[in-house]
Amino acid sequence: MNFLRKIFEETGKLVEKGKPLSWAYPVWEAADTIFFSTNKQTSKGPHIRDNMDIKRTMFFVVIALIPCYIFGAYNIGYLNALAMEIERGIVGNTIFGFTYVIPILIATFVAGAICELTFAIIRKHEVNEGFLVSCALIPLTMPPDVPLWQVFIGTSFGIIIGKEIFGGVGTNIFNPALTSRAFMYFAFPTKISGDKVWAVGPDGYSGATALAIPANPVEYDTASNLFAANTQFDYSTVNMFWGLIPGSIGETNKLLILLGALFLIYCGIASWRIMVSSVLGLVFTSLLFNLLNYLTVDGILQAGGFPNAMLTITPLQHILVGSFFFGTVFMATEPVTSSHTNTGRWIYGFLIGVLTVIIRSINPAYPEGVFLAILIMNMFAPLIDYYVVQANIKMRLARNV
Amino acid sequence: MELFNSESKKIVSDPINVNNPISLQVLGICSALAVTIRLDQAIIMTLAVVFVLCSSNVILSLIRNYIPARVRIVIMLSVIASLVSVVDELLKAYLYDMSKQLSVFVGLIITNCIIMGRAEAFALKHGPSKAFLDGLGNSMGYGLIIIVVSFFRELFGAGTITLPDGGAGYVLWSIPESWYAAGYENIGLLVLSPGAFIILGLVIWIQREFAGVEEDA
């Protein structure tokens, strides 16, 4: 360690104030604090003594994501083997998948690091570790066969427009990872719109995902028939839970996401209120739609009703299919962009669930609605907080009269 | 010569740079979003706005002493509307394809806030030569921004650069087929209005950075 310390002290002299290389100080500082704890002390209050500094919080989120990465890689290999009709074994499948995951990861981190360092140098602040989490999340939301230059552009957009424009980590309105996901969704719809199967396979190997709305939804009167219509893949409930279906890299296996969620809740990083309430919102809305569709089938609402198989998807299927679970655990709970009051968190999460089902089921243009729902609620989170705080003030005033 | 002293220069150059109607006053945004899908549309639109704004400023400045303050808006509107109609008819006569592409947006120059704004804020208070320079500066400032925005929107959104000609536009350069074969894709988002907002926002950001303008929080 002494050797490392020496290197940092020697190079540190080069980037001191007044030296020609002083613009590179943020880069040096970032590298230094990875290996050593800082000797800087906070000069102003509040002073909080806690082991969970920003770096460690971010690091724990990344740890929670690692299982998703490994399973995502395995799933790529598994689906590819299925499509090519060959056997490769678990290790072979995982290695095959990593040949797709790692380039995406590298493209994301290179883009993220370039943006973050550029802004740190221009604005003369220290490199913030927030971009590491954003960059770790972005590949998990990508289809495995996405072109790397699109990942590069998408990540840069997410980091710059989603975060740096608003002043960097802690001041952003929208989740940077989701911003880049949304940008890519609208910018490159041929690759990432979510109605086609995302799997690495032979040419022309594609089909409709479970959430793609069929051309004539009236034909399928129940959700089970709707999912069964995609004969290429097995969209049974068990299979969807274990994640052996095509999808974005990190979102398919629900068990690993659940474990990640428990880990984050145990460490006090993510809010369980948001997770629970968004599931509640999803269950409530999908049950409502189920009821609506039931009435329609019975002919009561026939005239103005919408005979739509998407409305018959049960709450459980809604949770298991698509990336709702991943989004609500890792994206919606982001501490900066979510609500900050506990009551606000319940409302915020609930509305994410409601909006997800509405976008999925009612809007035929977007097969998946989680990321849009979370971005919309990101926008409203400060408003919700404001009214929660005002209500509290009013309540306490009334108590004193 | 009054035309070339420093004050006149400032009247022309300010709206192009440090007091740009779009990027600093945030006026005329609607048409900046609507006609910036293709470069040739933006160029023709710029010419139309240059003509309308310069003429309306000069005409209103000439008659400024005879306009009763109470009905000035009506008079300003009727002058501007007649000029816009002239442009519209000219486009229909000589650049029919372009006029079809621009459709209602030529007519909507009447409602462009920049034109009414300059008439109200400048032409009614200054002589015709200054009013002309002011109109020139503001319309060029408007044109500069929409040309820059449309250049990037067309290049990255549709993969072409089109210049205006008598017909449907002359394609100066388009992204070669070999790029598409190698995996390049146009950014479809830029053709939509949100794309215009994003590009416009970036242009505003960069321009304010260079003009050194800070807005109070």
Mind telling me the C-alpha Rg of chain B?
19 Å
Fraction of residues in helix of chain B:
55-70%
Let me know the largest β-sheet of chain A. none
**Largest interface, counted with CB-CB under 8 A?**
A-B, 13 and 10 residues
Order of helices and strands of chain A: HHHHHHHHHHHHHHHH
User: What is the number of strand segments of chain B?
Assistant: 2
Helix amount of chain A: 55-70%
Given helix and strand content, the structural type of chain A is mainly alpha
> Number of helical runs of chain B?
10
Oligomer: heterodimer
Shape of chain A: globular
Shape of chain B: globular
SSE ordering of chain B: HHHHHHHHEEHH
Report, as a whole number of angstroms, the end-to-end distance of chain A.
Answer: 64 Å
Number of strands of chain A: 0
Give the class of chain B from helix and strand content and strand pairing.
mainly alpha
Total number of helical segments of chain A?
16
| Percent range for β-strand residues of chain A | under 5%
Q: Point out poorly predicted stretches of chain A.
A: 214-220
Count the domains of chain A. 2
User: What integer is the average pLDDT of chain A?
Assistant: 80
Q: How are the elements arranged and paired?
A:
The complex is a heterodimer of chains A (401) and B (217).
Chain A lengths: L1 H13 L10 H11 L18 H31 L4 H35 L6 H11 L7 H15 L13 H12 L1 H4 L30 H6 L8 H6 L11 H13 L5 H26 L17 H6 L3 H8 L10 H21 L7 H31 L1
Helix pairs in contact in A: 3-4, 3-5, 3-11, 4-5, 4-6, 5-7, 6-7, 7-16, 11-14, 12-15, 15-16
Chain B lengths: L5 H11 L12 H6 L4 H24 L9 H23 L1 H7 L1 H4 L5 H11 L4 H31 L1 E4 L6 E5 L2 H5 L11 H19 L6
Helix pairs in contact in B: 1-8, 3-4, 3-7, 3-8, 4-5, 4-7, 7-8, 8-10
Defining traits:
heterodimer; A: 401 residues; mainly alpha; 2 domains; 62% helix; 0% strand; B: 217 residues; 10 helices
Can you describe this structure?
The complex is a heterodimer of chains A (401) and B (217). Chain A has helices at 2-14, 25-35, 54-84, 89-123, 130-140, 148-162, 176-187, 189-192, 223-228, 237-242, 254-266, 272-297, 315-320, 324-331, 342-362, 370-400. Chain A is mostly helical. Chain A has two domains: 2-38 and 55-192, no CATH class; 217-400, no CATH class. Chain A starts with a helix and ends with a helix. Mean pLDDT of chain A is 80; it is low at 214-220. Chain B has one domain (20-210). In chain B, 65% of the residues lie in helices and 4% in strands. Chain B has helices at residues 6-16, 29-34, 39-62, 72-94, 96-102, 104-107, 113-123, 128-158, 177-181, 193-211; strands at 160-163, 170-174. Chain B has a two-stranded antiparallel sheet with strand order 1-2. In chain B, strand 1 (160-163) and strand 2 (170-174) form a beta hairpin. The radius of gyration of chain B is 19 Å and the shape is globular. The N and C termini of chain B lie far apart (42 Å).
